[in-house]
Amino acid sequence: MLKPLHDYVLLEKEKVEKTTSSGIILTSGKEKSKLAVVKAIGTGVEKPEYKVGDRVLYREYAGTNMKVDDEEFIVIKDEDIIACEG
């Protein structure tokens, strides 16, 4: 597992459903979830209002995306997390 440095946070992106419960296939690309689960917090993040395991909402064009195996992650700055579920 990657460990974020400084004031960065590692998030695991939520998977977007490709089909509805009734079987309708959704078009790809336009609607991507900006919700993710916090996986790790860098030591430079001061007094985070979230913890590992929390679901958070992040800014649309923030961070660096990466794919490990079949999971999608994003590394973003603490300031780009704009809401926390809870």
UniProtKB/TrEMBL annotation:
Any keyword Chaperone?
yes
Pfam family membership, one: Cpn10
Sorted keywords for this record are: Chaperone
Q: Name one GO molecular function term.
A: ATP binding
InterPro entries assigned: Chaperonin_GroES, Chaperonin_GroES_sf, GroES-like_sf
Chain segments annotated as coiled-coil in the UniProt record:
none
Q: Which SUPFAM superfamilies match?
A: GroES-like
Function according to Swiss-Prot or TrEMBL:
Together with the chaperonin GroEL, plays an essential role in assisting protein folding. The GroEL-GroES system forms a nano-cage that allows encapsulation of the non-native substrate proteins and provides a physical environment optimized to promote and accelerate protein folding. GroES binds to the apical surface of the GroEL ring, thereby capping the opening of the GroEL channel.
Under the subunit heading, UniProt states: Heptamer of 7 subunits arranged in a ring.
* PANTHER family on file: 10 KDA HEAT SHOCK PROTEIN (PTHR10772), 20 KDA CHAPERONIN, CHLOROPLASTIC (PTHR10772:SF63)
| Entry similarity comment | Belongs to the GroES chaperonin family.
List the protein's name: 10 kDa chaperonin
Species this chain originates from: Faecalicoccus pleomorphus
Q: Which gene encodes it?
A: groES
